Amino acid sequence: MQASVFSGAREVQAVSPGDRGLAYGDGLFETMRVHRGALPWWDAHWARLALGAARLDIRLPDAGQVREAAEALFANGDSGVLKLLLTRGAGSRGYAPDPAHAPTWIVSRHPLPPEPGAGLVLRWCDTRLARQPALAGIKHCNRLEHVLARAECDRAGVDDGLLRDCDGQVVSATAGNVFVLHDDAWVTPPLERCGVAGTCRAALLEPLRARVEPLPPGAVESADAVFLCNAVRGILPVARLGARTWPPHPAVAGARRILARLHPGFSPDNLSLEDPDT
């Protein structure tokens, strides 16, 4: 992994042991797919980071400097994954934030994940998401609920799992948003109370004419087709959830063609590319 670490505008060698991101998860992150050295969805990711920073009252670093540091990691024109991490920075012990401290930010380069050979196998996660509107939608660093849910999936030997809130409504997968098809119409759940509002989800809402409405578990199990999506892996068709199975569906293939027009990294010619140098 290649990475650059900054405190405010100054590059540093390492993160401070007193960094609030380490101590309290007091920060935000963005993960995006880089295509041949370019960052096709940079503006969308930066906008969500800025929204989260405003919500948490974290100082944003200079956008131009961050983008320059990010692009420098892919100056050789390779494809891969860029992670941008922003924390409130170092501070004294205790929960009270100190606005005088410079934020910490890190850009790091990672290889593309392998593409799945077939549709995903999912499970219903036992871990539930707590409702917290102040944190809903943003990609903050406290993701312990998702860590616990992902561990469930690994123990069960499945690809991913679907998360519900404390009232039993479907929210997302552990690492992506969910879309279900009913009578030729796509539906995805609202995220105003919990969950992450993904950049890939946002890009697909209008071209898919998707409705945003509450999604009970039965509406997933009775769907004509289901897919997950995120900004690194794109659209991932679901083949099985518990005892329910789905064959490949032309509407999912159509959604993937739409996504390929929105982000060149998701075109069929690029989906199997990996970056061997990272």
Structure in words:
The chain is an alpha+beta fold. It has two domains: 2-110, Aminotransferase class 4, branched-chain amino acid transferase, N-terminal domain (D-amino Acid Aminotransferase, Chain A, domain 1, 2-Layer Sandwich); 120-266, D-amino Acid Aminotransferase, subunit A, domain 2 (D-amino Acid Aminotransferase, Chain A, domain 2). Helices cover 25% and strands 29% of the residues. The protein contains seven helices and 14 strands. It has helices spanning 20-24, 42-56, 63-73, 144-156, 199-205, 217-221, 250-262; strands at residues 2-7, 10-12, 27-34, 80-87, 104-110, 120-129, 160-165, 170-173, 177-182, 185-188, 211-212, 225-230, 234-241, 244-245. Strands 6, 7, 8, 9, 10, 11, 12, 13 and 14 form a nine-stranded mixed β-sheet that branches. The protein has a five-stranded antiparallel β-sheet with strand order 2-1-5-4-3. Residues 272-278 have low confidence and may be disordered.
Topology readout:
Blueprint: E1 2-7, E2 10-12, H1 20-24, E3 27-34, H2 42-56, H3 63-73, E4 80-87, E5 104-110, E6 120-129, H4 144-156, E7 160-165, E8 170-173, E9 177-182, E10 185-188, H5 199-205, E11 211-212, H6 217-221, E12 225-230, E13 234-241, E14 244-245, H7 250-262
Parallel strand pairs: 6-7, 6-13, 10-11
Antiparallel strand pairs: 1-2, 1-5, 3-4, 4-5, 7-8, 9-10, 9-12, 12-13, 13-14
